[in-house]
Amino acid sequence: MNPTRKRRLWLLLALVVAAAIATTLVALALQRNVAYLYTPSEVLRGEAGAHARFRLGGMVAADSFRRAPGSMEAHFVVDDGDARLPVVYTGILPDLFREKQAVIATGRMRGDTFVAEQVLAKHDETYMPKEVADKMGAAHRKHDVPASADAPVDMR
């Protein structure tokens, strides 16, 4: 093999290795930043994982918001109609945050409480993010099936 071909082969090999390393680094960065959306009932069933970072979506339950005077720590409950999950958030809540409104919080579980790192709320009390509405609707459809639906029907 002549020196020019050998140099081109090494250059091509170096480019392939560099592309593979770059692709791996991008995939790892994207995987680390992915946060899946779960409803409180899915979290309580254990679908979110014990130490995973995820988004919690639902409605802020009525009369659940508490904040100690002089404290930045907010306590509230997120409800999906089937289950309720307590949330703790330290920081400034969005101006549009209020009870009986759709909310998405990003964070992790600590014991039985969701510790939020970020809280998002929308401007209209009738608004609900499509992901949250779809998941809550699916959860309600599961519970709306009559208990006798699986039982054999007597056709006498």
UniProtKB/TrEMBL annotation:
Residues that bind heme: H123, Y127
Stretches in topological domain Extracellular: 30-156
HAMAP family given in the database record: CcmE
Family: Belongs to the CcmE/CycJ family.
Keywords assigned: Cell membrane, Cytochrome c-type biogenesis, Heme, Iron, Membrane, Metal-binding, Signal-anchor, Transmembrane, Transmembrane helix
Annotated source species: Cognatiluteimonas sedimenti
Range of residues in the leader sequence: none
InterPro entries: CcmE, CcmE-like_sf, NA-bd_OB-fold
Membrane topology type: Single-pass type II membrane protein
Membrane-crossing residue ranges in chain numbering: none
Acetylation is among the record's keywords: no
Biological function: Heme chaperone required for the biogenesis of c-type cytochromes. Transiently binds heme delivered by CcmC and transfers the heme to apo-cytochromes in a process facilitated by CcmF and CcmH.
Location relative to the cell: Cell membrane; Membrane
Domain of life: Bacteria
Stretch list, region Disordered: 136-156
Name of the protein in its database record: Cytochrome c-type biogenesis protein CcmE
Residue intervals annotated with topology Cytoplasmic: 1-8
